[in-house]
């Protein structure tokens, strides 16, 4: 894992508290008939370093090897991103058994995969490229170390999420117990005579997870914690920005997919911070305008897998109905960068000329 300057392509608008007035008609004509609306844009928002790396991995594989490039599961949880990669030649599959040609690159998504997946790829001599976010891989390695040291592992996360499936699949069945709620903490009966350690999904609610971990620590005071927080920097920063903005606005829109864990958490964070209306929308056609009729201040953020172009679309949709001003409220600077998977950094035998 390396840290450095973020790719300029994905750099966020860092102009905190800069106001700009939008003209929905693209002219200087006065738009006095529309009611005013102040939009507070949360920053950081949108793409994180792991998502940028995963998307770049697919694009680089297409550039080096041509189409098709197979991708196991959605590379990141965003339909817009997936559809645009499909148009460039990526083919998304649910399982490796659906890949008809072992000579084509197969990319594993940013959420990570159980160990059985790379093992199957190796057995079938696939050209596999792992785009698992390095911060998810960190959690996998932590779990492995605990297991080697004879500890039973508690994974705080959501059942069925690909990241949780991937993390649980790093170790033999029974090595990890999933904890989703405080009720799970109360009814937990860990194996006798074993030390206990916990790890977490990277995209959880910081506040909910704190409560669950406190519950675990109250029951098991010797519980071993991660050296460094498992909830990633991007999740934490996006939630902090929403906490700052949510109490200041009448409504808040999270741009993101319903199957994106970090996007769902942003909506919940807004609700708990006192925002009267908070909605998760993928595109403008999902906005329920009846909910945003009387608002004067609107917050907007985007999940870690939502591209900035979709945020712009949402702003433009409001600009058609309101005279909007846009102000960015920034709570953190991000400069995390992950290099591409090794197979895409070094020349490979079947790379295109
Ligand atoms: S949300 Fe966090 S863990 Fe997930 S891809 Fe982004 S940086 Fe990695």
Describe the overall structure.
- This protein has 353 residues and is of the alpha/beta class.
- The protein folds into three domains: 139 residues, Cobalt-precorrin-4 Transmethylase, domain 1 (3-Layer(aba) Sandwich); 85 residues, Rossmann fold; 85 residues, 4-hydroxy-3-methylbut-2-enyl diphosphate reductase, catalytic domain (Cobalt-precorrin-4 Transmethylase, domain 1).
- It contains eleven helices and 13 strands.
- The strands form three sheets. A six-stranded mixed β-sheet has the order 1-13-2-12-10-11, with helices on both faces. The protein has a four-stranded parallel β-sheet with strand order 4-3-5-6, sandwiched between helices. A three-stranded parallel β-sheet has the order 8-7-9, sandwiched between helices.
- Helix 8 packs parallel to helix 9.
- The N terminus is likely disordered.
- The protein binds iron/sulfur cluster (SF4).
- Iron/sulfur cluster (SF4) binds next to helix 1, helix 4 and helix 8.
**Main sheet?**
6 strands, mixed
CATH architecture verdict of the largest domain: 3-Layer(aba) Sandwich
CATH homologous group name of the largest domain: 4-hydroxy-3-methylbut-2-enyl diphosphate reductase, catalytic domain
The H-and-E topology, N to C, reads as EEHEHEEHEHEHEHEHHEHEEHEH
Q: With helices defined by DSSP (H or I, 4 residues minimum), what is the helix count?
A: 11
Number of beta strands: 13
The CATH topology name of the largest domain reads Cobalt-precorrin-4 Transmethylase, domain 1
Rg, please? 22 Å
Strand percentage lies at 15-25%
The level-1 CATH class of the largest domain: Alpha Beta
Mean pLDDT equals 91
As laid out across the biggest beta sheet, the strand order is: 1-13-2-12-10-11
Q: Tell me the count of domains.
A: 3
Shape: flat
Termini separation: 29 Å
- Ligand types: iron/sulfur cluster
Uncertain residue segments: 1-21, 23-27
| Class computed from helices, strands and strand pairing | alpha/beta
Share of helix, binned: 25-40%
């Amino acid at each position: 894992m390396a840290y450095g300057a973020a790719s300029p392509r994905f750099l966020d608008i860092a102009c905190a508290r800069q106001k700009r007035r939008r003209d929905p008609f693209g002219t200087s004509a006065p738009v006095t008939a529309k009611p005013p609306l102040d939009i507070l844009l949360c920053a950081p928002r949108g793409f994180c370093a792991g998502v940028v790396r995963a998307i770049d991995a697919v694009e680089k594989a297409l550039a080096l090897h041509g189409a098709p490039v197979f991708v196991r599961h959605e590379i990141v949880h965003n339909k817009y991103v997936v559809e645009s990669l499909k148009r460039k030649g990526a083919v998304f599959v649910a399982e490796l058994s659906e890949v008809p040609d072992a000579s084509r690159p197969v990319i594993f998504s940013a959420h990570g995969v159980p160990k059985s997946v790379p093992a199957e790829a190796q057995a079938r001599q696939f050209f596999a490229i792992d785009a698992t976010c390095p911060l998810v891989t960190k959690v996998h390695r932590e779990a492995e170390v605990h297991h080697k040291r004879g500890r039973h592992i508690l994974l705080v996360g959501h059942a069925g999420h690909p990241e949780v499936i991937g993390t649980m699949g790093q170790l033999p069945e029974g090595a990890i117990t999933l904890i989703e709620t405080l009720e799970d903490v109360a009814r937990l009966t860990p194996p006798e005579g074993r030390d206990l350690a916990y790890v977490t999904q990277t995209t959880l609610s910081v506040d909910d997870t704190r409560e669950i971990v406190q519950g675990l620590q109250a029951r098991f005071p010797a519980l071993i914690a991660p050296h460094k927080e498992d909830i990633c920097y991007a999740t934490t920063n996006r939630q902090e920005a929403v906490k700052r903005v949510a109490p200041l606005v009448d409504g808040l829109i999270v741009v993101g997919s319903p199957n994106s864990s970090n996007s769902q958490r942003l909506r919940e964070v807004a609700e708990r911070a006192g925002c009267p209306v908070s909605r998760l929308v993928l595109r403008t056609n999902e906005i329920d305008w009846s909910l945003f009729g009387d608002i004067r201040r609107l917050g907007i953020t985007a999940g870690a897998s939502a591209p900035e172009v979709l945020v712009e679309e949402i702003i433009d949709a409001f600009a058609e109905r309101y005279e909007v001003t846009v102000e960015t409220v920034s709570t953190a600077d991000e400069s995390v960068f992950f290099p591409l998977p090794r197979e895409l950094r070094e020349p490979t035998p079947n790379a295109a000329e």
